[in-house]
Amino acid sequence: MLAIPLPVEIEDRLDQLAEMTGKTTTLLAKQAINEYLERELWQITETEHALN
Description:
This protein has helices at residues 8-21, 25-51. It is an all-alpha fold. The longest helix has 27 residues, at 25-51.
């Protein structure tokens, strides 16, 4: 399990999005982290490919 303290501004935005979408804040956070990881890993992999 991962516990991440968030600034109040981010928590407020997360709460707002959860309310607007009907999704839980946990689901939204998981989706955001997953999308970030996919994008970063893709970028690093593609950069390494281009350099080799």
